[in-house]
Amino acid sequence: MSALRLAVITAGLTQPSSTRLLADRLTEATVAALAPREVVVEVVEVRDVAHDLTNHVLTGFASPELQVRLDAIAEADAVIVATPVYAASYSGLFKMLVDVLPKDSLRDTPVLLGATGGTARHSLAIDHALRPLFAHLGALVAPVAVFAASEDWGSVDAGSLGARIERAGTALARLLLGNAAPERSDPFEDVTPFAALLGELHG
């Protein structure tokens, strides 16, 4: 069975970056949820090709370094995106990358959305900015997305952010594999028929 290809787009501008940290945690959760399937992860750090993106927008030609990253996204079986929120929306650098992706490259591709911001007030950017963007691109957007505010990182392992990351990774894995949620066992499935019980009583 061939390995699954997972592209991870992270649009943080600083190093270290909470956006990259969120992308890494979402990747770990997704890979764990896909086990035992082999997963090949390709991380696209948008800040590394910022100048190439500008040149591509102006000239229509991608540098070899940028083309490698665009190909990784277009050929991926699933994509994780993480962007900082600026002015109640995704970053301009992130949008530049999306703008130069090949037409229909994300159509029918499962995509997991993540975003970071200073406070929880920015969390609505996922629903009013990111979801419509990827719906327009024809992507299959995972139902669970993750927004991480600055105060969330203190409880990333044991608190709500850690749980949300795990749920999001599981949701993307199910979307990628086409699996529905596991069926719950019916406690009444193996009940002894009433006629048999009567027979035992009369016996």
UniProtKB/TrEMBL annotation:
One Pfam family it belongs to: FMN_red
Keyword check for Oxidoreductase: yes
GO MF term list: oxidoreductase activity
Record's keyword terms, sorted: Flavoprotein, FMN, Oxidoreductase
Lineage: superkingdom: Bacteria
SUPFAM superfamilies in alphabetical order: Flavoproteins
The NADPH-dependent FMN reductase-like domain, residue ranges: 5-153
Name assigned to this protein: NADPH-dependent FMN reductase
Highest classification ranks of the organism: Bacteria, Bacillati, Actinomycetota, Actinomycetes, Micrococcales
